[in-house]
User: Fold these one by one.
Assistant:
Number 1:
Amino acid sequence: MQPDLFSSSSGTTSPGTPHWQERAAWLKSELNRHNHAYYALDNPTIPDAEYDKLFRELVALEQAHPDLISPDSPTQRVGGKPLPQFEPVRHAVPMLSIRTETDTTEGGAIAFDARLRRELGLGVDAPALEYAVELKFDGLALNLRYENGVLVQAATRGDGATGEDVTQNIRTIRQIPLRLENCDAPVLEVRGEVYMRRDAFERMNERQREKGEKAFVNPRNAAAGAVRQLDPAIAAQRPLSFFAYGLGHVQGWQTPESHSETLDALAGMGMPVNAERRVVAGAAGLAEFYKHVASIRDALPFDIDGVVYKINSYALQRRLGFVSREPRWAVAHKYPAQEQMTVVRDIDVQVGRTGKLTPVAKLEPVFVGGVTVTNATLHNEDETRRKDVRVGDTVIVRRAGDVIPEVVSVVLERRPEAVGAPFNMFQRLEGKCPVCGSHIDREEGEADWRCTGGLVCAAQRKQAFAHFAGRRMMDIEGLGDRYIENLVDLGYVHSIADLYRLKLDDLLDMKRRADERDGVTPETVQKGKIATKWAENLIDAIEASKNPPLERLLFALGIRHVGETTAKTLADWLGSLANIRQAPVALLRVLPDIGDTVAESISEFFAEERNQQAIDNLLAANVKPRDEHPPSAKLREKLGQAELLAALRIPKFTETRCRQAAEQGVTVMSLGDIGTSDSVDLPKNIKESIVEWLAQGDHADLVRNLDRVCRALLEQLPAGAAPELGHLTGKSFVLTGTLPNLTRDEAQARIEAAGGKVSGSVSKKTSYVVAGAEAGSKLTKAQDLGVPVIDETALLRMLEEK
Ligand code: IVH
């Protein structure tokens, strides 16, 4: 790639500027642009690998020419040296807080509007006030200072007058632009909230728990901890996000007339501004927004604790002014809290689908996050002990979004004298699964205790059935938890294949026995009338599920670590259940996106005789994937000897060494000769390591099996099959404007499915620019560079051609 192809984005270097300076400037602006598209707009413009390549190039250039490093360089996001402490920052304009309206009904909105109307002296006939309404993010307030468009300082709120300089940490937040677009005002301070998304928080905590380390209490604490982390390298690993909601000190920028226009302008400069905001009229508008946000609160990817109403016009804001340290023109209207106190009555243990044993606190019912909660997860033994949750304790329970309620912490001051003993899983269960009585086990390095009963355990079996029948798996409509419960408890199904042997009479029998057991036999049944429609439907649904796509059947089997994506990879690459169920672990490791843990888990699943038997039983019941095919032709590349040797994971025999060995003709099959062969040039210690490895356990058999299976797979490939490349491979597209039918994502997905690439900027190398309505500068650039411009119809035709 040559910088001159992209002259529009760097463009300003004068004649005589060294080429690396020009290249670095171009790289910086490209990377910043991609960052913005990825993190702020959620619309990536290039693949990650491509981004990494550009990034590494810039790092190398900056290392060679340190004078190129500037505060707006994307390389400066990685976090510098640990700080001894934070420097104080005096805010040019104090950071105030807002008054909170705690009435969690619409009344709170009405009271605020009435108060402002009174203060402005508006009569009943005066028009409604205009408000800018937005979310109240539950994070930490920040002041970002941009000078001449470049981020120079980030400070926390502190006591409102003086905060702390956290610039180093904030630079690591990719959503925050290091340079504003189209703004070179001498000073522009942007205020907003730094927060952590719930999914990022859950993932981070899950990792902490897996490592047996302390989990964070809630996203707000995790975010605050990360911002005030003295080691920026650690801060950089905490996934933070940011939303702008206002201004601080401004110099040399023509501030708009209203708050909503300011937020629009900030968004235009590349600042992340939340889209869930409106301009509304009067109390009715406020109340409507309050209700609307309440209804979407659980679905938002981050926590909020309310909404904020602000008078939109700055002129009116000035007229209203401040009382003590709070503006009169704004109010925060809260929602019911997502954290509440209650008492632990007992600690139970639940058995998960894979046997995981989870301690669950049984609580005095408490209303939190909009529902009554009686159970909250304690995650695992370590976590329960770390929080020291005991029966009788008063605890804080949290329920946010659709996340399972959890016990956050114990209120120690309220611990009663007669509190229970510290939680001990083994003692609590007397070493036995509470459902099936199999012994429980906790492997070294694992955070979880497990029931060893596998599908012998009714709890695991029930959940395995529920998973198997699920909508995204075998999709057996009508086979809900209640029927599964009865079918398992009353002994009608033991293994998944038993489902396919159920007869109408079995179902009716099951229902009758279950009703008798529960003492709920309906009157109609007592009178001899038996409803059969449901059972007929269920039998039909089971029958209809017999020929799913292979990937669904694989996903349905409930193999640990195999989600939909992995199931699809296995199905696409290996083509048939027969190939997959006999794939050696080394073969699985060479498939894309399958790491060692996943490969091992798949191979352990199929190594289990019971599981192979269950699959045979399914096949015997005529359950068969409908779309089996030969393995992917691309498999040929993956099954090179160097790749396979490396996948054996022999100590010291690194990828590079495997490549060297393969170049000298070493194959999986001839590996056994390596100790005696002088013709292979490899360091002695590596040869010794290979010989030692081959002598261990069943490794020699494993190698023979790998070779046999790989040969068999290659034989299934159509002779000399060309690699399966889409017909648009090698073609690059740039999309601009609005297409009449396809959304941008759809167009991109379809181009990529055909092997083409979609890029964000036009260059001489672009094959086609696809232009829709209101196409902008990219269209002009394509015309300047002579790149062919096509419309949606032509694109669709091209996609359909083969
Ligand atoms: S405006 C003078 N807007 O809530 C008004 N604040 O007490 C300045 N917050 O710590 C604040 N979301 O960090 C404003 N959309 C929003 C907000 C918001 C969250 C936080 C802010 C401050 C507290 C206000």
Number 2:
Amino acid sequence: MVLQEQSVGQVMDGKALAASVRETLKEKVTKIVETGKRRPGLAVVLVGDDKASALYVKNKTQSCKKVGIESFMHTFPADTDMETLLNCIKTLNQSDVVDGILVQLPLPSHLSAEEVLAVLDPNKDVDGLTTESMGRLFAGKTGLRPCTPVGVMVLLEEHKVDVEGKHAVVIGRSNLVGKPIAMLLQQKNATVTMCHSRTKDLDKICQNADILVVAAGKREFVKGSWIKPGATVIDVGIHHTQGPDGESVISGDVQYADAAKVARHITPVPGGVGPMTVAMLLSNTITAFERRTGIK
Ligand code: NAP
């Protein structure tokens, strides 16, 4: 794996922060177990044989182990039908030892993620993707929030990035990333501009961003010249490619080396938002456990 060039801006080290979050969560789980309670449990549902999904799932279950969360794997072949999958979710909804249910997306094309989310118990929705969870986020009510957006907010907080009154630009409007990030930034009193594939003069809008969050899913799409000097740049994108010698290269949605020369803070890829996403999944699972068992 080739890491990106060293920057002159301050690198927001998501890997280190995620490790520290995991330490705190591990202590929390140890205390829970010491009081005689069971461990928090996360059920992970994986359908099909997509290599990237399998890798993400492995990473998530290993992270569970590190903090003492019990993980339950439910693996299905690619040709699984909707009824089987929905029955699995309904059983997990009823399980006393499962606090969080994660359905790894994307699902094979014949299956509907929407139908899965419609039956998933919002109290166990550790990805924050059900309509109920999204509504609660939109209304500013307590609920489980999507992991990547919360991870971004924790990174900003850790690096003491002032959000209030700042102009935050979010590129991307997916339910998973763009929309919830925009909402969370707005709730922290940023003035938010949401951009998407039909946005005009995107470079000029970005040049006005104090905080720029990029979740476009387009490799090295944002150029260094688009970054306002002193801005904070959060790169959510993840792209796996091969280098000239066949080595594995991971890069983001931002031209990192150029952007880092201008930005005040910037997340690297890998090692920025990605590890925080997994850490927030663990955090959500423990929160779900606490709420379900009446601790919180
Ligand atoms: P997505 O569902 O494909 O959404 C991409 C968004 O970007 C869409 O809203 C799209 O606009 C917008 N977009 C596409 N091309 C654009 C352009 N030329 N100019 C402006 N906006 C453009 O992707 P996603 O699920 O949000 O994920 C985004 C990226 O984050 C991907 O690289 C994904 O792998 C990565 N990701 C990383 C993590 C992590 O933990 N680091 C977690 C989740 C996702 P329209 O709505 O108009 O189509």
